[in-house]
Structures are given as C-alpha cells and as structure tokens.
Design a protein that fits this description.
With 345 residues, the protein is α/β, with parallel strands linked by helices. The chain folds into 2 domains: 255 residues, P-loop containing nucleotide triphosphate hydrolases (Rossmann fold, 3-Layer(aba) Sandwich), CATH 3.40.50; 61 residues, Histone, subunit A, CATH 1.10.20.140. It is built from 15 helices and 6 strands.
C-alpha cells in the first residue's frame, strides 16, 4: 500500500489541527444538537481487512470514513498502523488521521468529542459516516457516552506502576481479579496501562471500573448499524504474520528508528503500540531483529484474540462471517440506508 505524508491527499475537514490542517472542535456535538442521522460502525480484529472493506463500502454508498484506530491518530506512525495512504484518501474522504504527535496522549473523551463533531459535519452535508477501526473503547464511547469516572491521583498511579515493574504485573492482575473480576477478564496481565488505571480507579473510589462503565450510559441517539469482520482464527493469524513481514519490507524498521531519533519516551501509549514497541527494544539493544519480529507477530495475534473476545461481548453487532463479507456487508448497508438515509446522498 502506498503511504501518504501526514495529512496529504485528503480534502480539508473540520477536524484537523494547525500542523495538519485540522481545526479544533466546537462546543456542540451531534448528541447535543439533536442530530440523528444514520451512522455505520465497521469493526474487527487487527489484520481482518477492515480498511479494505471500509473503502469498498464508502465508494459504493458515498460514505466518508472516520478513523477509529487509536494509533492512526498519530503523525509519524504510518506503516506500522496500516494507515490509509494518499491513493485511498483521494478516493474517499477520511477524518481523524494524523491529529497529533506521539508525545500527546489521546484520551477516549477527546476522541469522542472529535468523532461526534465529524458525525455532525457529515450529516450536515447529507453524508453518512462510517467509523472504521479496531479500538473498541472508542466505538463504545461514541455509541454510549462516557461514565463519570472520578479522577485518579497521579502519585498513586506512579506508585502502582513502580509496584508492577518491581514485583510483576501478574501480581497486580491477581489483585484486580479480587476487586473487579470483570475488568480482570478484559485486561491482559501484561497490559500495564489499563491494569494500573483499573486498580487506581477502584483504590480512589471504592467502585470497580467495570461498574463505572455501566453507569450513566445513554442509549444511542442516532440510527446505528454495527458490522464486524470475524475471520476464522487460524487464517487470521497467518494474515497477521504476513502483514507484519510486508510492513518490514515497506520500511517499518526505518520508521521506528526515525521516531526513536526524535526522542519520544518509550512509555508513551503511541510508542507502546504493537510492532513499534518490539522494534524499539531491538533498536535499544534488548532484542535481536529476529526476536523482535517473533514477539511482534505473537503480540499482534494476542491483540487480535482480545479484540475478538471484546466483540463477542458487545451487543447489537452483525458479524460478517460468510464467504463474501463485502457482499454481505453491502446487503446490510443497503437495507439500513433504505430505512434511515432520507437526507443522505
């Protein structure tokens, strides 16, 4: 796939920041203005072909794509995030790509604000937006809103991070299982960031994070079609391995080296993304390239497994499991738009 320079080949949108032609969001959102135009979600595990299918649907139905991948938000993370290139952006209008730099961590709430602004802008132009990506929490936030989770003491968070580094993340995961078993089932023992957050929220409020997520979730304010690719697991894992090899051939190691040369901290969420994290360890002398590649493929497969588990527990999803997912999705979208796209082109 041809890669684009950040922000290139894409028509101007209302969601770019100064360096990449994107303006800050206004105060109102789709839900606040009462806009109830139709919205499509296209989800699936990494390597399942979401981006390609999203392009097919967008071109067939005149949709605009709203990125819902947490890594593609960052400028400079191109190859390893499988970010749409210049050719794709010229064919279909994309939103929420290249929003910021890796040293500017992106919160779920910040994403939701920008995404809802995108939906409103699309509907105002008579266009149906399709959110495409693999970050489940982003989809959930757009659909159901965010619960009022209390702030976490930064010092306590640092203390938990230090404890995990010193005593092992499995110990913290076991502790989480005792106070919030639902969160412990969702969070992998080596997912330090989410593990620390879940424990810190419970420690500061006495209420499990999973309970906070259940509180105050409003119903959808727009007609919504939720599609998800769910390939056979063995075939998916083989595609994941082949894709990482293709990324290396396309220059992923040089991309990671360029990011490292800019001095971005290894602890940043962007720098801990699968593929980047393992190659950074190679560049730091901790792993051979062969070892880094093996770990990156393994961790990509594990990430896909977690995504599949998450999808299976989400309500209202139409799983595309037939021999021709594009045809199946096209049929579903046709029916959906026939009922809900009175103002769309």
């Amino acid at each position: 796939m041809t890669r684009a320079a950040p922000g290139s080949g894409n028509p101007p949108t209302t969601h770019t920041m100064a360096a990449s032609g994107i303006m800050a969001p206004t105060a109102q959102t789709t839900t606040e203005t009462g806009n109830t135009g139709p919205v499509i979600f296209l989800m699936g595990p990494t390597g399942s072909g979401k981006s390609a299918l999203g392009m097919v649907l967008a071109e067939r139905f005149g949709l605009e794509i709203v990125n819902t991948d947490s890594v593609q938000l960052y400028r400079g993370l191109e190859i390893g995030s499988a970010k749409p290139g210049a050719a794709e952006r010229l064919r279909v209008r994309h939103h929420l790509l290249d929003l910021t730099t890796p040293d500017d961590p992106f919160s779920v709430g910040r994403f939701r604000t920008l995404a809802l602004e995108c939906l409103e802008a699309c509907h105002a132009r008579g266009v149906v937006p399709i959110l495409v990506g693999g970050t489940g929490l982003y989809f959930r936030a757009v659909e159901r809103g965010l619960s009022a989770i209390p702030p976490v003491d930064p010092e306590h968070r640092k203390s938990l991070l230090a404890e995990g580094e010193a005593l092992g993340w499995l110990r913290l995961h076991t502790r989480l299982g005792g106070v919030d078993p639902e969160a412990a089932r969702r969070i992998a023992p080596n997912d330090a960031q989410r593990l620390v957050r879940a424990l810190a929220v419970f420690d500061s409020s006495g209420v499990p994070l999973s309970e906070w997520h259940r509180r105050g979730s409003p119903p959808p304010t727009f007609p919504l079609l939720k599609l998800a690719l769910l390939p056979e697991r063995e075939g998916l894992y083989a595609r994941i391995d082949r894709r990482f090899e293709a990324m290396l051939a396309a220059g992923l190691l040089a991309e990671v080296a360029h990011l490292a040369a800019q001095g971005f901290a290894r602890e940043l969420p962007a720098m801990k993304a699968v593929g980047y994290r393992q190659l950074l360890r190679h560049l730091d002398g901790q792993l051979s390239l062969e070892e880094a590649v093996i770990l990156a493929k393994r961790d990509s497969r594990r990430y896909a497994k977690r995504q599949i588990t998450w999808l299976r527990h989400e309500p209202g999803i139409v799983f595309l499991t037939g021999p021709d997912p594009a045809a199946e999705a096209g049929t579903r979208v046709t029916r959906f738009l026939a009922h809900h796209s009175h103002g769309s082109r």
